[in-house]
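Technical annex, item 7. During the second reporting period the consortium partners agreed on a shared format for inverse folding records so that results from different sites could be compared directly. Each record opens with the tokenized structure and is followed by the designed sequence. A conforming record, contributed by the partner at site C, is shown below for reference.
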């Protein structure tokens, strides 16, 4: 039996008027107040001659007021059309052009006079209740029409499979079907909704851990990742019963991590066109049917869904019947137990943390840049967001490369921040089919993989690069020996988290995704030239440098040889052996010789073992599990390339003009501290800082402990008691 939101709220207001309906950090709204305030909105609409089934757009309205407004719009028999926040003026105009609302409601239209009269009428179940904007295929959003029947059916299906709820946490907006689904479910069960900011994991954790905290929450992968980080490995609150996880591609590693920590995660698959979820943990929700159309030999085909929450289609298009199958455009298969396994998207749409992105819209903005002759935007898998947009561009004839900062700023001026590509790869031409249409599959293949791309270097070598964030300030991140740029992903993400920097992490030759045509020791000048070449290829005039271990050595050398290209340097425990005492210099030479001999006799694995036994001790290698040894063995060519420390210029360090912060950990190997002190004495205005309890591997294993010092050393954050005091070198 179909039910409606206003009628249920009216019932709750009569039967439990003081019960909590909505709460946030500033106020609590009970069922009686929610009914009265929503009825006041309904009167405003009547006074403005809003008729049955008219569309009412909601813009720039806070979440609590948006709930009140949505209920009021439905009470008036109209259709609520919430517009996402954070859109540019152009995007908002495009949304309004699609919606063509009879009225646009903003914060000033929600004044409450305290009065209330009458009962809420029961609407036609098939009447439209909500229009959700989602990406289209022509650069314009599309309006998905969801009826009262569809929204109620979705809530009923979810509540039939979830444990009973005592409350829902809502760190999602109401302009998306996931947030709307939470509202419908909470009202159906007469439980409170706790409103939370979308990007504050500490606030979410505190709300869940409160004595009467919500039992259920719905998150996208990035939110869950940050929640687990905030929890620090702690078990979930006892009151928490379900963590719904959806909003695009779900990383398997995140699910495994969540389950190991004991959190009650429920993976979901859903679409706006189905009123929210379709499956829970791969199983179809009640009354939902999933089939695989045109399966290949592996059983993979297009996912087709039917169910009572089916939308009525899109605004401006012919209506769709409730029983008509929905061809999703997604590819999947069903395992032997009937569980749905989503394999990939066939459509071009990008879903970043639950936000839909139309690549055509982004491409149109990029094409307006005078330096861009052609652009293609595709999705790249991302462990945090599920997918992120990346761009391949072809420069216009005769135009100079404007650089990442300029391109990102241009995109940001016309697009919401989540639509801005995280990287821009330069191509000579875009891959095209015979008819001239860009082959997005080929573009995806070019931009896929562990690295965002590769830069060809002399001799057949290549250096791979990864980009995190899209802020205006570039930071180059250089990893240590037996490490890779990928291992610093968490560090890169934490540095970029405030949104003010773009972190470019590059694999040195021989490490990670950077190929060596021939394994060999490399002069430091080769690595420094690679750094400069990368900056040139990206159009970056100058950047901050962050180097971990041997990466710190190269950061200092780059700052000395190219002072005009470096804004600041942070070097964490750089093993710059040539500034050490005579005994330590001899030790470094033994390491280089033994590593080179081991590589000659036993290849990369032997070189990795010889190097690690020297720098960390025999016990460090002996206690490694086989999987870790295999991972390190893959980096043995890099140990050979780094160990000799040839080509360093200790006297040249005096030419560094950028601010330099040298970091060490108090729990690290003892030889790093005296080397750091010796370096600081050679470098003008260098500062030295020992971080309590940190080890040499802390930037990889516990990056949050290092980030405040790094950001302060780069000049991104003020030096405060909450960051790090920086000590001058002595």
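Designed sequence (site C submission):
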């Amino acid at each position: 039996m179909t039910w409606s939101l206003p009628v249920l709220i009216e019932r709750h207001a009569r039967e439990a008027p003081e019960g909590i309906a909505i709460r946030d950090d500033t106020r609590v709204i009970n069922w009686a107040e929610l009914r009265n305030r929503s009825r006041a909105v309904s009167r405003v609409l009547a006074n403005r001659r809003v008729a049955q089934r008219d569309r009412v757009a909601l813009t720039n309205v806070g979440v609590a007021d948006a709930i009140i407004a949505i209920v009021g719009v439905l009470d008036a028999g109209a259709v609520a059309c919430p517009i996402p926040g954070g859109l540019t003026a152009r995007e908002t105009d495009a949304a309004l052009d699609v919606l063509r609302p009879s009225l646009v409601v903003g914060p000033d239209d929600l004044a409450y006079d305290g009065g209330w009269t009458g009962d809420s009428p029961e609407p036609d179940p098939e009447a439209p209740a909500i229009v959700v904007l989602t990406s289209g295929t022509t650069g314009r959003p599309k309006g998905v029409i969801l009826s009262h029947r569809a929204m109620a059916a979705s809530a009923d299906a979810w509540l039939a499979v979830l444990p009973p709820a005592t409350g829902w946490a809502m760190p999602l907006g109401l302009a998306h079907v996931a947030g709307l689904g939470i509202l419908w479910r909470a009202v159906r069960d007469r439980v409170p909704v706790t409103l939370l900011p979308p990007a504050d994991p500490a606030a979410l954790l505190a709300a869940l851990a409160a004595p009467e905290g919500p039992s259920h929450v719905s998150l996208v992968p990035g939110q869950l990742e940050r929640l687990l980080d905030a929890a620090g490995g702690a078990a979930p609150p006892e009151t928490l019963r379900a963590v719904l996880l959806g909003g695009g591609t779900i990383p398997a590693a995140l699910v495994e991590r969540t389950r190991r920590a004991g959190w009650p995660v429920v993976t979901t698959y859903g679409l706006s066109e189905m009123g929210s979820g379709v499956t829970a943990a791969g199983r179809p929700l009640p009354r939902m049917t999933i089939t695989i159309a045109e399966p290949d030999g592996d059983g993979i085909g297009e996912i087709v869904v039917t169910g009572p929450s089916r939308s009525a289609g899109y605004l401006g298009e012919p209506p769709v019947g409730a029983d008509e199958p929905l061809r999703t455009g997604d590819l999947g298969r069903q395992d032997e137990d009937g569980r749905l396994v989503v394999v990939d998207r066939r459509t071009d749409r990008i879903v970043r943390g639950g936000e839909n992105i139309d690549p055509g819209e982004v491409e149109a903005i990029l094409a307006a840049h005078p330096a861009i002759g052609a652009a293609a935007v595709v999705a790249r898998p991302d462990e945090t967001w599920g997918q992120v947009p990346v761009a391949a561009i072809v420069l216009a004839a005769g135009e100079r490369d404007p650089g990442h900062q300029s391109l990102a700023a241009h995109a940001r001026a016309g697009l919401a921040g989540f639509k801005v590509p995280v990287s821009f790869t330069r191509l000579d031409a875009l891959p095209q089919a015979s008819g001239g249409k860009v082959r997005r599959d080929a573009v995806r293949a070019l931009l896929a993989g562990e690295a965002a791309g590769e830069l060809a270097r002399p001799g057949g070598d290549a250096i791979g690069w990864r980009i995190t964030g899209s802020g205006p300030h570039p930071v180059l991140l250089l990893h240590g020996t037996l490490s890779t740029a990928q291992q610093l992903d968490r560090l890169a993400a934490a540095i970029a988290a405030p949104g003010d920097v773009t972190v470019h992490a590059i694999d040195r030759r021989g490490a990670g995704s950077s190929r060596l045509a021939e394994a060999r020791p490399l002069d430091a000048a080769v690595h420094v030239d690679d750094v400069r070449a990368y900056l040139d290829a990206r159009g970056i005039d100058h950047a901050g440098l962050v180097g971990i271990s041997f990466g710190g050595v190269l950061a200092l050398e780059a700052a000395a040889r190219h002072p005009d290209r470096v804004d600041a340097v942070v070097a964490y425990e750089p093993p710059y052996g040539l500034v050490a005492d005579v005994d330590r210099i001899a030790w470094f030479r033994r390491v280089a010789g033994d590593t080179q001999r081991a590589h000659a006799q036993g290849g990369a694995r032997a070189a990795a073992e010889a190097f690690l036994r020297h720098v960390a001790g025999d016990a460090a290698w002996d206690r490694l599990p086989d999987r870790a040894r295999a991972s390190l063995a893959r980096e043995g060519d890099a140990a050979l390339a780094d160990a000799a420390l040839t080509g360093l210029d200790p006297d040249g360090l005096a030419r560094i003009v950028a601010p330099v912060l040298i970091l060490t950990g108090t729990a690290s190997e003892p030889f790093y501290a005296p080397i750091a002190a010796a370096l600081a004495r050679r470098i003008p205005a260098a500062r030295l800082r020992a971080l309590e309890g940190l080890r040499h591997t802390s930037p990889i294993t516990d990056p949050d402990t290092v980030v405040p010092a790094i950001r302060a050393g780069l000049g991104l954050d003020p030096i405060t008691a909450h960051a790090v005091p920086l000590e001058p070198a002595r």
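Residues 461 and 518 are 8 Å apart (CA to CA). The chain is about 35% helix and 25% strand. All partners now use this format for quarterly exchanges.
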